[in-house]
User: Fold these one by one.
Assistant:
Number 1:
Amino acid sequence: KAMETSTKSLISIEKSKTSKIDKVDFDNLAFGSVFTDHMLVCDYKNGAWENPKIVPYGPITLDPSAKIFHYGQSIFEGMKAYKDIEEAIWLFRPLDNHKRLNISAKRMAIPEIPENYFMEGLSALITLDEKWIPKKAGSSLYIRPFIFASGQGFHASPANEYKFMICLAPSGSYFSGKVKVLIEETYSRSANGGVGYAKAGGNYAGQFYPTQLAIEKGYNQVIWTDDNTHEYIEEAGAMNIFIRINDTLITGPTSDRILDGITRKSIIEIAKDENIKVEVRKITVTEVVEAAKNGSLKEMFGAGTAAVISPISTFGHKGTDYDLPELQESYATRLKNRITDIQYNRAEDKFGWRYKL
Ligand code: PLP
Ligand code: COI
């Protein structure tokens, strides 16, 4: 009981005097481009996280020497809140996002955020802005928790002050239509011993230029290969990758270089539950190209919180485009239905992943 009281009063709330909600076209939501009325801000000072508060959404002030600007000490998470037909609110495996945020924090020399700040902060913020959770099928409230170095100084060392924030964005789908990808052979997203497994802001900045080059050639997204040989398929810009050869679903093992996706690990379990043969193993570009040539390559799809499951229609490699077949009964559709039925509380959740807010 005492615990309960102390966590209840953990977050202070300053409500916005007005709401922007009437200006939002919930039938035509893009991804992550409108934001709710409130945000959570929590400061790290004098060696401790303190004073988590919910305030009206808006700009924040930082010193120009804040280390985020110079040394990129910045990490984030991506989650979603879903509303079922009874208007109950659900999250999906949120404790895994908390764990991963702290894995990223450790790698970037950022202080870890306690679980109660993360969970109570999420809960208080989403409850306050719950009217912003879209009800339209396929839409959801995208949740962006992040931490960055607000502390001052040009010395190239970890800051002594940080901000943990959560912003919410009612969102539609990440990709509009099928995805055309380019298998990247020149640039690398990450390297052994590097920060690829962390959700560090710089990992994304580093992808923008190679992705721009791919977009200029008519692709939507790059598929990253390993930095050493460019022979192993790793992941996409914001998704883990699954490849179906004949009836077997294959995805690469996670490593130093790959983000340990929550959608990925859920899809592996659901696929097994569907009696789909799943292999978690290294897969080479050569194997995929050969399979495309001999017709055994049936599907490729990306998996991630923002992208959910996004089927790939075409992949490019060494100047040749390979089209994936149009299947009547794809694994992508089957697995997407299973996972979204759990997320939106339309079906039983035998795995215990759904989290009621
Ligand atoms: N890989 C990268 C690089 C990502 O940014 C993401 C998105 O979060 C994923 C994979 C998928 O991870 P998750 O399913 O946890 O969202
Ligand atoms: C997510 O799926 O939550 C992501 O992080 C994708 C993001 C880079 C847009």
Note: The pocket of 2-OXO-4-methylpentanoic acid (ligand 2) is lined by residues 78, 204, 238, 304-306 (CB under 6 Å).
Number 2:
Amino acid sequence: EAAAPAAEEAPVYTYADMTLCYPQLGAESDWRTANTASIKQTAEELGVTLIFSDAQQKQENQISAVRACIEQGVDVIALPPVVEDGWDAVLTEAQDAGIPVIIVDRSVSADSSLYAAHIGSDMFLEGQRAAEEMNKLLPDGGNILELSGTVGSGAATGRAEGFRDALNDNITILDSQTGNFTRAEAIPVMEAFLKKYAGQVDGVFIHNDDMAIGAIEAIKAAGIEPGDLKIVSVDGTRGGFQAMIDGWIQADVECNPLLGPQVMEMGLKLMNGEAVDPETLTNETVYYPEEAEELLPTRQY
Ligand code: AHR
């Protein structure tokens, strides 16, 4: 008797079948360099074909890179958006082409029906954590400054809002200016702050470690000693850890850039038509100077 024909199985793709597009937003910080390395290294280890580009912090470059990937017919696009707004048109184009998009790291303001999922940090929570640290550092209140990230980015907006949400009423934010998440741009901003608010400042909330390192150069040049200004930063990079060891940063809120494995795993699930979590938030903590010396040798970024 002839055996019944086997039921036709759905095609099961493997990593070797996947072409993933990663239009990186730039190379503005050590965090970003680590994020790029994580994506590249994971793709190489798993045998994923990676289409990588660097938009140099310009949204128009990122949009062109996404369009080129759509044209090429990649399997998945993983997009770390430089800013929140302005993605609707290109996300619709990807959807019309049947290419799933994973939003990585920062968020977008576009309707969530236009993309498959978001993997990244809770920037609002990071801001709240930073405020809790500033509250502890200035228990009697005081005046502080804010050096914020790229204007319009989910990271800067979320951190600024979370910070204000959790900051004690007896702490006043005298001023807030952007340093665009880079060391170079943070230096003149901090110099101008120190001139304008000489003798009035007790602390600084800085949206990432690269800007903190730039700001510390300006603070040192102004003759201020480590610890005289309480600094709370974000990222937890090796540079941030060193600045904690040297006494400049009093608390560093973690933002984890090592997203490669999660991005590739979700990309493959999407290729295979499997359900994915619409929101995957990274588990993060806060680091302190007391543990920095011990942890620094094993920091990956
Ligand atoms: O979106 C994450 C932020 O972008 C990191 O805090 C910062 O270092 C990077 O440039």
Note: The mean pLDDT is 96.
